[in-house]
Structure formats: structure tokens, C-alpha cells
């Protein structure tokens, strides 16, 4: 009898094959399973929202919750998973809508204007004031050399949400595109990371320009309304 034949005779086919041999490995595989589920759930959620299968009010908290879980799980897997695309390639996952949402890091309702607020003057003033406040807060934060991702990302998320709620503000407003790109950049980093001094200088320059353009557009609308009256 050969060694291989002897080994086959000793092999118990009913014995469960374990993926791990210790608690650390078990946690890793549990977290990887969680990440897989989060990606698939986000893909279904994005498609349901696009198809109007769920409302914006239903979509927003669920999406924000999945984004938070994704961030936490990726932090747990920082030693095992290089990035989202690599993980999806390894496990043959095709979820483009989920990838896009995780890269941006905020729900679609924050990224794009939802609904029609043009007839609500009080809300209009509120969203304009909020947008100005977020612009100033972001620029002041950068001027104070506070470059941490977990400090800048929430301000950018609040800014894009308030800009999208300003009635009559064009979807082509360059400031929105700049904020969106910075959201994507920061979301690819860890919460504890910091942007470089060069990045901070560029962000400050772009936000200052966007803030000035925002004021110019609002002044133009105001003058137009006054002329028509």
C-alpha cells in the first residue's frame, strides 16, 4: 500500500473542513462574509431606489447605515483586504452601483437634489445659509491645519447635501463637482489618515472659488428677481 492510499484510508470524509484554526482567523472570515453581504445589499438598495421601489425617506437611512458598516468592516480587514475592487475581483462580485456609492461615501439623496423646493421660500433661505456656513467651516478647518479625514468628510457631506437643496442652483454648478470629487478622494482613505499639505492647499483654493461663485450665482438670481418685479 502506498503512502497516498494509506492517507486516503485515514481521511474522514464526514469531517467538517475548517477555514480557520484560531479566533483571529475566524474573525477575519466572519468580517469578510459581512463585507460580501454589505456590498450585495448596497447593490440591491441602489437599484431599488433607482427603480422607485423605495422612497427617498426609506432609502437614505438604510444607505447611510450600510456606508457606516462598510467603513467599519473595511477597517477590521485593513490587514487582509487592500481595497474594495480587489476584494470583489477575488470573489467574482459585480456590483457597480454599490462601488460607486461606497466611493462617494454619502447617499444619493445627499449627492443629488431630490424633490422640488422652489416654492418654499423659508426652506430656500435655510439651505442657502447652511451652504454658506459649511463652506466657511470647511475653509476655516483647513486654515487651522486640521487635515484628518474623519474631520473633513462630514463637513463635505453636509455641504453637498445643503447645496443640492438650494432651489434653482444648477446641477452643473462646478462647486458641486469639486465637493463630490473630494468626497471620493477622502472616502478612499482611512478615517485616521490625513490629507497632505498640498491637497489641503488645493481643496482650500477650490472651496474658496466655489464659495465665491455660489455668492455670484445667488446675487445674479436676486438681481433677476428684482428686475422682473
Short description:
It is a peripheral membrane protein. Keywords: Endosome, Protein transport, Transport. By secondary structure, this protein is an all-alpha fold.
Walk me through this protein's architecture:
Helix content is about 70%, strand content about 0%. It has ten helices and no strands. The chain has two domains: about 25-110, de novo design (two linked rop proteins) (Up-down Bundle), CATH 1.20.1440; about 115-220, Vps28 C-terminal domain (Four Helix Bundle (Hemerythrin (Met), subunit A), Up-down Bundle). The chain has about 230 residues and is mainly α. It is globular and about 65 Å long. It has helices spanning about 5-10, 25-50, 55-75, 85-90, 95-105, 110, 120-145, 150-165, 175-185, 195-229.
Can you tag this structure with a few keywords?
Four Helix Bundle (Hemerythrin (Met), subunit A); de novo design (two linked rop proteins); VPS28_N; endosome; mainly alpha; VPS28_C; 229 residues
